[in-house]
Specification:
Blueprint: H1 4-32, H2 38-45, H3 49-56, H4 60-82
Amino acid sequence: MLPAVDVAILALLLVAFGALVTTHLALAVLLLLRSPWWRGLVALVIPPFAPYYGWESGLKVGAAIWVVAIFVYSVALIAALSI
Protein backbone atom coordinates (compact mmCIF):
# COMPACT_ATOMS: atom_id res chain seq x y z
CA MET A 1 0.00 0.00 0.00
CA LEU A 2 1.28 3.46 -0.91
CA PRO A 3 1.86 6.05 1.78
CA ALA A 4 -0.52 9.00 1.81
CA VAL A 5 2.17 11.42 0.62
CA ASP A 6 2.86 9.32 -2.47
CA VAL A 7 -0.84 9.18 -3.31
CA ALA A 8 -1.19 12.95 -2.84
CA ILE A 9 1.78 13.68 -5.09
CA LEU A 10 0.50 11.26 -7.73
CA ALA A 11 -2.94 12.88 -7.63
CA LEU A 12 -1.39 16.34 -7.92
CA LEU A 13 0.71 15.19 -10.89
CA LEU A 14 -2.33 13.78 -12.67
CA VAL A 15 -4.54 16.81 -12.06
CA ALA A 16 -1.83 19.32 -13.01
CA PHE A 17 -0.90 17.41 -16.17
CA GLY A 18 -4.54 17.09 -17.18
CA ALA A 19 -5.12 20.80 -16.64
CA LEU A 20 -1.97 21.64 -18.58
CA VAL A 21 -2.84 19.50 -21.61
CA THR A 22 -6.48 20.64 -21.65
CA THR A 23 -5.58 24.31 -21.35
CA HIS A 24 -2.83 23.98 -23.96
CA LEU A 25 -5.17 22.43 -26.51
CA ALA A 26 -7.92 24.95 -25.73
CA LEU A 27 -5.51 27.86 -26.20
CA ALA A 28 -4.21 26.42 -29.47
CA VAL A 29 -7.72 25.93 -30.88
CA LEU A 30 -8.88 29.38 -29.76
CA LEU A 31 -5.77 30.92 -31.31
CA LEU A 32 -6.48 29.06 -34.56
CA LEU A 33 -9.90 30.72 -34.65
CA ARG A 34 -8.45 34.19 -34.24
CA SER A 35 -6.36 36.33 -36.54
CA PRO A 36 -3.53 35.63 -37.27
CA TRP A 37 -4.43 31.93 -37.33
CA TRP A 38 -0.83 30.70 -37.64
CA ARG A 39 -0.27 31.51 -33.97
CA GLY A 40 -2.46 28.54 -33.11
CA LEU A 41 -0.24 26.20 -35.10
CA VAL A 42 2.91 27.62 -33.54
CA ALA A 43 1.40 27.34 -30.07
CA LEU A 44 0.44 23.72 -30.72
CA VAL A 45 3.95 22.72 -31.84
CA ILE A 46 6.01 24.91 -29.49
CA PRO A 47 4.23 24.82 -26.09
CA PRO A 48 5.70 27.97 -24.46
CA PHE A 49 4.13 30.08 -27.20
CA ALA A 50 0.61 29.08 -26.14
CA PRO A 51 0.41 31.29 -23.03
CA TYR A 52 2.42 34.05 -24.69
CA TYR A 53 0.20 34.30 -27.75
CA GLY A 54 -2.86 33.67 -25.61
CA TRP A 55 -2.02 36.62 -23.38
CA GLU A 56 -1.41 38.85 -26.40
CA SER A 57 -4.72 37.79 -27.97
CA GLY A 58 -6.74 38.57 -24.86
CA LEU A 59 -7.02 35.01 -23.55
CA LYS A 60 -5.52 36.05 -20.22
CA VAL A 61 -7.37 33.52 -18.04
CA GLY A 62 -6.30 30.59 -20.21
CA ALA A 63 -2.71 31.81 -20.31
CA ALA A 64 -2.66 32.21 -16.51
CA ILE A 65 -4.11 28.72 -15.99
CA TRP A 66 -1.46 27.29 -18.33
CA VAL A 67 1.36 28.96 -16.37
CA VAL A 68 -0.03 27.87 -13.00
CA ALA A 69 -0.56 24.31 -14.25
CA ILE A 70 3.00 23.96 -15.53
CA PHE A 71 4.36 25.38 -12.27
CA VAL A 72 2.30 22.98 -10.14
CA TYR A 73 3.22 20.06 -12.40
CA SER A 74 6.93 20.94 -12.20
CA VAL A 75 6.87 21.20 -8.41
CA ALA A 76 4.96 17.93 -8.08
CA LEU A 77 7.34 16.19 -10.48
CA ILE A 78 10.36 17.38 -8.51
CA ALA A 79 8.71 16.20 -5.29
CA ALA A 80 7.93 12.81 -6.85
CA LEU A 81 11.48 12.35 -8.10
CA SER A 82 13.02 13.33 -4.79
CA ILE A 83 11.13 10.70 -2.76
